[in-house]
Write a structure and sequence with these properties.
By secondary structure, the chain is of the alpha/beta class. Helix content is 27%, strand content 28%. It is built from 13 helices and 26 strands.
Length: 480
């Protein structure tokens, strides 16, 4: 796919407003926005950002949890040729300040235009950017609309930082806009989708053309009541919300039935996948991708085996390679490397990390996988997380999957500890369901299911494990 044929984010809003001006775009509480209103606000706010003196490429940050207002101001930044950084409000202030400083933030959008508590030196403006832009500012909006391309930076996105210090990814418009142009078997553009918090800019963009209902509750019974009242027909959620909804003991709200459930960002256990589909009677679409690449694989129309991450999207090229960059034989495990129109521009101010992420023009995901006879891919762990036990490579994810089959284990994380003889040994941190199992019991359980090198040499027990906002275990907390 040629990138010069791919639109900017704000052009998707223009197209939706032209085709369906009176269709509701966003619902948040009592607020409702039609596409005509979103486009008008996007243009006005873009003018106000230019009035504030922001030049093409400048960065705007917010951490406000008002998804409709955040979406429109993000679209305005796209219109004005600016980059956007969203920081989760739950993030520690010191981490917020560090990320904003590294990104070179020029302006902070806050609820009422007050200084941001974690960014007191960054000039603030109100999130809804009140005021009327001058004719000169409107003319500049039109100029930038014509001159800024889909290769320009739309979002500066921190990596999850689960294995180390977060990097800042430069994401172009094309990552957000190339795939919505493709015809996908589950897409229903008149749908009413439901996106509980924490909201995500990707969901906002992928919902353009339909109606997206946002919520500010995390209570599963209230979420279901809101979805039923809104008549939601599709549900977009990250795995922690899938588990939250699937784990309810009471029946779902009357009349609540979806056609599609869509999830991604982290692995979804089979138990949660079956629970959520049985509860709502819907087809589950799971997606695999990364922040650096955007969406790469998805559930094909015929479905996929348990544990699979699906097949590549149209336009995505995938290879599996060994440590020397050579393609592996069918059925063998290799690292996933990809080419896609959604590739990042690079890591901000880190050319070395950017260069290391690529093999020629292929992006190295760091994920290990194998492909079955039907073309579905199956993850086999992270290359960087593999534990080297005397030259024998152990995937911690494989050991975690075995441990979590034990009825007394609610969650497990497996990691390396240094060893004078073997170099590294396998260790496990366990969150028990009720009464903790003994280390001897867990070791025997693993010995019956794993080769000797994969069996943890030691166990430690925790009330809970640290998680990122996307539900992933923060592995760096267990690094030696």
């Amino acid at each position: 796919m040629e990138t010069n044929a791919i639109q900017r984010v704000d052009a998707l809003v223009d197209a939706a407003a032209a085709a369906h001006p009176d269709r509701t775009a966003f619902i948040f509480g009592e607020r409702r926005w039609t596409y005509a209103a979103v486009r008008a606000e996007m243009d006005r706010r873009a003018g106000m950002l230019i009035e504030a003196g922001l030049a093409v490429g400048d960065l705007v940050v917010t951490s406000e949890m008002m998804p409709d207002e955040v979406a429109i101001s993000f679209f305005a930044c796209c219109r004005a040729g600016l980059a956007f950084l969203f920081l989760w409000s739950q993030m520690p202030p010191t981490e917020m300040a560090s990320l904003a400083a590294r990104a070179g933030t020029r302006l902070a959008l806050t609820a009422r235009g007050e200084p941001h508590n974690a960014l007191p030196l960054v000039p603030p403006l109100a999130l809804d950017l009140p005021g009327t832009p001058s004719e000169a500012a409107r003319a500049e909006v039109a100029t930038r609309q014509c001159s800024v391309t889909a290769d320009a930076v739309a979002i500066v996105q921190p990596t999850s930082g689960t294995t180390g210090l977060p990097k800042l990814i430069l994401l172009p418009h094309r990552q957000l806009t190339w795939l919505p142009r493709a015809s996908l078997w589950w897409e229903q553009f008149e749908r009413l989708a439901y996106a509980p918090p924490p909201h995500h800019l990707y969901g906002m963009v992928f919902g353009i053309g339909g109606t997206v209902h946002f919520s500010h509750t995390t209570d599963p019974s209230r979420i279901e009541a809101e979805m039923a009242a809104a008549g939601a027909t599709a549900l977009w959620v990250i795995p922690p919300f899938v588990r939250l909804l699937a784990g309810q003991q009471t029946p779902p709200a009357a009349g609540l039935r979806f056609s599609i459930l869509r999830t991604g960002a982290a692995a979804l256990p089979g138990e949660a996948a079956r629970g959520i589909t049985e509860r709502y009677g819907a087809t589950l679409v799971q997606e695999y991708g990364s922040m650096e690449t955007g969406r790469l694989m998805y559930t094909p129309p015929a479905g996929m085996p348990d544990g699979s991450i699906g097949v590549p999207y149209p336009g995505v090229d995938v290879r599996l390679v060994d440590e020397d960059g050579r393609d592996v034989a069918p059925g063998e495990t290799g690292e996933i490397i990809v080419r896609t129109p959604g590739l990042m521009i690079g890591y901000l101010d880190d050319p070395l990390a950017t260069a290391r992420a690529f093999l020629d023009d292929w992006f190295c995901t760091g994920d290990l996988a194998w492909r079955d006879m039907d073309g579905c891919y199956h993850l086999a762990g992270r290359r960087i997380l593999r534990i080297n036990v005397g030259g024998y490579k152990v995937s911690p994810e494989e050991v975690e999957a075995v441990l979590e089959q034990h009825p007394a284990v609610r969650e497990a994380v497996v990691f390396a500890k240094p060893d004078a003889t073997r170099g590294e040994i396998v260790w496990a941190a366990i969150v028990p369901r009720d009464e903790p199992p003994t280390a001897r019991e867990l070791r025997r359980f693993c010995q019956e299911r794993l080769t000797r090198q994969k069996v943890p040499r030691g166990f430690e027990f925790h009330a809970e494990l640290p998680h990122s906002l996307l539900g992933k275990v923060v592995r760096r907390a267990f690094s030696s």
